[in-house]
Amino acid sequence: MAGLMEAAFATDRHTMMKEANGVPGDLARSMAAPLSDWIAQGPRTHVLKAVDPHTDELLGWVCWRRSDETKMPPRPAATGGDGAPQVVPALSQGTDAPHSTVDELEHLTDSDRERWQREIMPPGTACWYIVAIAVAPRAQSRGIGAALISWGTTRADAEGLFCWVHGSEAGRRAFEKAGFTEDDHLTVDLDTYAAAPPGSETGLQRWGEYTFTYMRREPASTLHRNREAESG
Ligand SMILES: CC(C)(COP(=O)(O)OP(=O)(O)OC[C@H]1O[C@@H](n2cnc3c(N)ncnc32)[C@H](O)[C@@H]1OP(=O)(O)O)[C@@H](O)C(=O)NCCC(=O)NCCS
């Protein structure tokens, strides 16, 4: 499953730039521990595989999680004077500032993702969210992603809960088709953070701008009501 994720992100420019500029390209190895945790976490964390019924080949997988409205998450390590949560830089681990420009990019993307996550899912919020999703490159655009997404949106609809996801550029369209809409976004100019331009093997002139889209989906009953209101 981790290897499939590495293959799925092999053409993602943000991932390509980080790998080419000092972050070792071992996404598969770094995914192994989180995946094991997600699989063991239950019952609110669900890891689902899409498998070819004829060959048993793994085609894709998703990790969906339902937030627990009855269980308050642990307090953030650092809080402001007014008790408001602070954005905790993922890489700085407290006092060490990030060093390289790729580290700065990770610091920015992690901090901004955490900021939005705290806004959309304050303690006590009941919702469903996609932790990770990937479909094998040769199996993409055949509806497998849509099926993995609808597993969670169906449950969220039944419970009247909203869903959210941090969308990659490739994921945005798939999530829009499932009813997610943009709630916020972060656009970064990858060339600003890159120590070197793309190699000729990438076919890219520049790394370019990359947009992470933070997306939200209301439960179907709410969508239905909104459409009725729009049509008068
Ligand atoms: C995003 C992803 C999971 C979608 O899976 P999928 O099986 O290809 O999705 P579907 O076949 O259900 O397609 C849904 C829509 O997504 C879009 N889409 C699929 N693959 C895409 C790609 N590589 N780039 C851009 N859009 C893509 C298509 O518009 C498609 O709509 P269509 O049916 O009108 O063509 C898959 O492309 C993937 O693994 N991408 C790399 C990893 C990634 O970015 N994951 C998302 C992290 S948030």
3D architecture notes:
- The protein is α+β, with helices and mostly antiparallel strands.
- It has a single domain (2-230), classed as 3-Layer(aba) Sandwich (Aminopeptidase), CATH 3.40.630.
- It has helices spanning 2-8, 13-20, 27-41, 101-120, 144-159, 169-177, 190-193, 220-230; strands spanning 45-51, 58-66, 128-135, 163-167, 181-189, 209-217.
- The chain has a six-stranded mixed β-sheet with strand order 1-2-3-4-6-5, sandwiched between helices.
- The site of coenzyme A (COA) has 22 residues, from β3, α5, β4 and α6.
- InterPro entries: Acyl_CoA_acyltransferase, GNAT_dom, Trichothecene_AcTrans.
SSE order and pairing:
Blueprint: H1 2-8, H2 13-20, H3 27-41, E1 45-51, E2 58-66, H4 101-120, E3 128-135, H5 144-159, E4 163-167, H6 169-177, E5 181-189, H7 190-193, E6 209-217, H8 220-230
Parallel strand pairs: 3-4
Antiparallel strand pairs: 1-2, 2-3, 4-6, 5-6
Helix pairs in contact: 1-3
Bound molecules: coenzyme A.
